Amino acid sequence: MSAPPSPAKLIEIFVDADACPVKEEVYRVARRYELKVYVISNGGVRVPLEPLIEMVVVEQGPDVADDWIAARAQRGDVVVTADIPLAHRCLQAGAEVIGPTGRAFTASSIGAAMAQRGLMEHLRSTGEITGGPKPFAAGDRSRFLAALDEAINRSKRARGSL
């Protein structure tokens, strides 16, 4: 007699938390879908004391949090980050990736995002004043909520669990 099939892995959400302005929104959506959330940080980020929300404190150092996320994010998981190289790594693993402003990173858009990031780094290294990202706005929060909901539903459809 053969063993029953193992249950499909549930969707997990990974939050690159150190500079993430939408953590509360992630928690709210995750509660609605009953999804596990990992909040990854170098420290100093508080999370609600709930079984589905887990704070992960990694060592200090460049890309330590990114490496933790990239090593665990899998096809169908959702990653929330503004870090373009991390977004690229997670997309390669098959995860859905969205930025805090609601920007969805996709296989077709990540190349342009990486190129623009490289150009801006080059300009900054030559002393060019490039400014920073636009300030986070109320509209970004609502776009993020819609994008997170869409990413979760895409993952659920791909797994046949909708």
Layout of helices and strands:
Layout: E1 12-16, H1 23-33, E2 36-41, E3 53-57, H2 64-72, E4 78-80, H3 84-92, E5 96-98, E6 104-105, H4 110-125, H5 138-158
Parallel strand pairs: 1-2, 1-4, 2-3, 4-5
Antiparallel strand pairs: 5-6
Structure in a nutshell:
This protein has helices spanning 23-33, 64-72, 84-92, 110-125, 138-158, and strands at 12-16, 36-41, 53-57, 78-80, 96-98, 104-105.
Structure, described:
The protein has 162 residues and is an alpha/beta fold. It has a single domain, classed as NAD(P)-binding Rossmann-like Domain (Rossmann fold), CATH 3.40.50.720. Helices cover 41% and strands 15% of the residues. The protein has 5 helices and 6 strands; from the N terminus they run E-H-E-E-H-E-H-E-E-H-H. A 6-stranded mixed sheet has the order 3-2-1-4-5-6, sandwiched between helices. The two termini are 30 Å apart. 30% of the residues are buried.
Strand content: 5-15%
Q: Low-confidence segments, ≥5 residues, pLDDT <50?
A: 1-7
Q: For this structure, what is the CATH homologous superfamily?
A: NAD(P)-binding Rossmann-like Domain
What is CATH's topology name?
Rossmann fold
Mean pLDDT: 84
Read across the widest sheet, the strand sequence of neighbours is 3-2-1-4-5-6
Q: State the end-to-end CA separation.
A: 30 Å
- Helix tally equals 5
What's the Cα radius of gyration?
A: 17 Å
Q: Would you identify the CATH architecture?
A: 3-Layer(aba) Sandwich
The arrangement of helices and strands along the chain is: EHEEHEHEEHH
Structural class: alpha/beta
Helical percent range? 40-55%
Report the oligomer.
single chain
By CATH reckoning, the class would read Alpha Beta
Total domains? 1
The biggest beta sheet is recorded as: 6 strands, mixed
Shape category: globular
Number of strands: 6
